[in-house]
Automatic annotation (TrEMBL):
Catalytic reaction annotation: L-glutamine + H2O = L-glutamate + NH4(+)
Protein name: Glutaminase
Molecular function per GO: glutaminase activity
Gene giving rise to this polypeptide: glsA
Record text on subunit structure and interactions: Homotetramer.
EC number: 3.5.1.2
Chain residues that bind substrate: S69, N118, E164, N171, Y195, Y247, V265
STAS domain sequence ranges: 351-463
Pfam families for this protein: Glutaminase, STAS
Superkingdom in the source lineage: Bacteria
Signal peptide: none
Annotated family: Belongs to the glutaminase family.
Alphabetized InterPro entries for the sequence: Beta-lactam/transpept-like, Glutaminase, STAS_dom, STAS_dom_sf
Length: 463
């Protein structure tokens, strides 16, 4: 559709966020794994997967990188699925350690403190070996599960895997220590082998966003529509990601970003807004905690600019669009001269009404505007009826204004029915154009009048 070949409003927002995080090349590659020391440090991708499976991909969203520690919540999910909560809880805690990811850290029961540090992750991998006959079979099952979450077949990076196997003394030490404490029952070398293989699975930011989207969706992949994991396991995994996912910076992360997340030394970060969306970011330059410097910055900007903090409390409603129809169905009579009436006869299908409901936050507004954009060749005027909307957050408000301005650039118009002033605070002249081509009115009758005025004005302009 040539009319809408350019980037959408949301894509422009994401590009701005991406560009604002490009400045400064701080951080270092994870050179403790020799193979990772050679990756291009400038790669920087960003993806967002919405609950209906739509994915926004910005910049280097197609660069493949190894998943590394972002795999930890997934393997934990698989261990919970196969062994059950009680058996897993006996061997892996759920408390934040406040320590580095590779700390040799256990609690008073000699359990790894949580599944997001290496000790807990190696133990999660070992639990799969208790139910599978060998490492190959366990890895086959594991990669099938990761693939089901990503919605495509994922594969191993053999070079990174071999590199980790050669340089993994510290992780080996952790595995043998856990064996000596009596919590790791599988062969330590096998547990390490499986752990290194899981870290070496190749993903893109699109994959991380869709995996995050699967968790956001309670375990159902938003792309394939298939359940990959149970709701109760997702609840547990998101809880642990919230408290332990970003290591020693967990408190700061929850406060500023407010999204369950997991980082990896490959440069990836996966973040989840439960019920709404998944985020994937990639930039391989890391801070001292092993988190991607630009990835953290991008998550902070995404959260603050798009209002994605999980405690940004809104009355969520999956069905933001309550109704979608043409003005034919309105049965409202406007005050028109005979010639105007003749002109307008049969033209009401050029006016579309979108009835919205609930509280409008980023993801609901995004889906409305995406629908508007994809159907915009079918109308001249869109009437957005917000009579049933209680609250519109800051980002959604500017998205509506931006969308109205975009429509004007395309010789189209938007009229907003907003009796309670939820989008734009009205002044005394309620029906004056608010900004750009946008009209804010209080009744559907006024909206239809404005919409017809626009069609009549177009007719005059077109002669
Ligand atoms: O255990 C390791 O060294 C890696 N394979 C994974 C560590 C990792 O990604 C930590 N996360 N920031």
């Amino acid at each position: 559709m040539t009319l809408f070949a350019g980037p959408s409003l949301v894509e422009s927002y994401l590009e701005q966020i991406h560009n604002s995080c490009l400045v400064g090349g701080e951080g270092a590659l994870a050179d403790y794994i020799p193979e990772l020391a050679g990756v291009d440090p400038t790669g920087f991708g960003l993806s967002l997967a919405l609950h209906d499976g739509y994915v926004y991909s910005i910049a280097d969203a197609d660069i493949g990188f190894t998943i590394q520690s972002v795999s930890k919540p997934l393997t934990y999910a698989l261990a919970l699925t196969h062994k059950g909560f009680d058996a897993v809880d006996e061997r892996i805690g759920v408390e934040p350690s406040g320590e580095a990811f590779n700390e040799i850290s256990v609690d008073s029961k000699r359990r790894p403190r949580n599944p997001m540090i290496n000790a807990g992750a190696i133990l999660s991998a070992s639990l799969l070996l208790e139910v599978e006959p060998d490492v190959d079979t366990a890895f086959g099952e594991l990669v099938d599960f990761y693939s089901a979450c990503a919605g495509r077949k994922l594969v191993l990076d053999e070079d990174v895997y071999r590199s980790e196997m050669k340089s993994g003394a510290r992780n080996r030490a952790i595995a043998y220590m856990l064996q000596s404490f009596g919590v790791l029952h599988a062969e330590p070398e096998h547990a390490i082998d499986l752990y290194f293989r899981q870290c070496s699975v190749v993903v893109t930011t699109d994959d991380l966003a869709v995996i995050g989207g699967t968790l956001a969706n309670g375990g159902v992949n938003p792309r394939t529509g298939r359940r990959a994991v149970s709701q109760s396991v997702v609840q547990r995994v998101l809880s642990v990601m919230t408290t332990c996912g970003m290591y020693d910076g967990a408190g700061d992360w929850v406060t500023t970003v407010g999204l369950p997340a997991k980082s990896g030394v490959g440069g990836g970060i996966m973040a989840v807004l439960p019920g709404q969306l998944g985020i994937g970011v990639y930039s391989p330059l890391l801070d001292e905690h092993g988190n991607s410097v630009r990835g953290v910055k991008a998550c902070k900007r995404l959260s603050s600019d798009l209002g994605l903090h999980m405690f940004n409390v809104a009355r969520e409603s999956r069905v933001t669009v309550r109704g979608f129809y043409s003005a034919h169905e309105l049965h409202i009579t406007t005050d028109r001269s005979d010639s105007e009436r003749r002109y307008l006869h049969g033209k009401h299908d050029r006016i579309r009404i979108y009835e919205l409901q609930g509280d409008l936050t980023f993801s609901g507004t995004e889906s409305v505007l995406r629908r508007l954009r994809s159907s915009a060749t079918e109308f001249e005027v869109a009437i957005l009826d917000l009579s049933r909307v209680d609250h519109v957050d800051e980002v959604s408000r500017s998205m509506f204004v931006g969308a109205s301005q975009n429509l004007r650039g395309l010789q189209r118009s938007a009229v907003i029915v907003d009796p309670d002033g939820v989008v734009i605070k009205r002044h005394s002249h309620a029906s004056e154009p608010a900004r750009g081509a946008q009209f804010v009115v209080t009744t559907m009758h006024e909206a239809l009048t404005r919409a017809e005025d626009f069609l009549l004005k177009l007719a005059v302009e077109e002669g």
